[in-house]
Amino acid sequence: MNDPCPCGLGRDFSVCCQPIIKGSADAQSAEALMRSRYSAYVKGEIAWIMKSCVRDDSIDEEATRRWSQNADWKGLQILKTEKGGPADTEGVVEFIATYVMDGLKEEHHETASFIKENGRWVYQSGAIKTETVVREGPKVGRNDPCPCGSGKKYKQCCGR
């Protein structure tokens, strides 16, 4: 392969997402549009990211450009799709886009909604999924006895 497609389907970019991004082919499903949008982030094709959205002013083009350019994109994982096929008018794709930014590995986990406008799939909205960190044990307060067993207050012992 000359240039593997970033979307992860294992095909060459020139026959996978590039025709959708360049406008010579339409995405046949909500998932295909999602994959092309991820590939556009990887390739810096900001015009396609903006064009593939429902037209409104809620998407900041400059912030999108910075994210695209500053992230080292590592992969796309499609977790679930609902509807979004060629005969549908709406669809949902849950995905995780993994990237490294400022030396930190990040996961963008989103459930994205797509609709068909004039026969073409477009991104409508997304809900970011966040993960709640759960402690294994109770939080130790500053004035609680230190869990190390020293008999001192936590703030005077291991809490320093």
Question: What is shown here, in short?
Answer:
It is built from four helices and four strands; from the N terminus they run ααααββββ.
What keywords describe this structure?
elongated, 4 strands, 160 residues, alpha+beta, four-stranded antiparallel β-sheet
**N-end to C-end Cα span:** 56 Å
General shape: elongated
Mean pLDDT, all residues: 92
Strand order of the largest sheet: 1-2-3-4
Estimated helix fraction:
10-25%
Number of strands: 4
Contiguous runs where pLDDT drops below 50 for at least 5 residues: none
Main sheet characteristics: 4 strands, antiparallel
Could you explain the architecture of this structure?
The protein is of the alpha+beta class. Helix content is 22%, strand content 29%. Helix 2 packs across helix 4 (61-70). The model has no long low-confidence stretch (mean pLDDT 92).
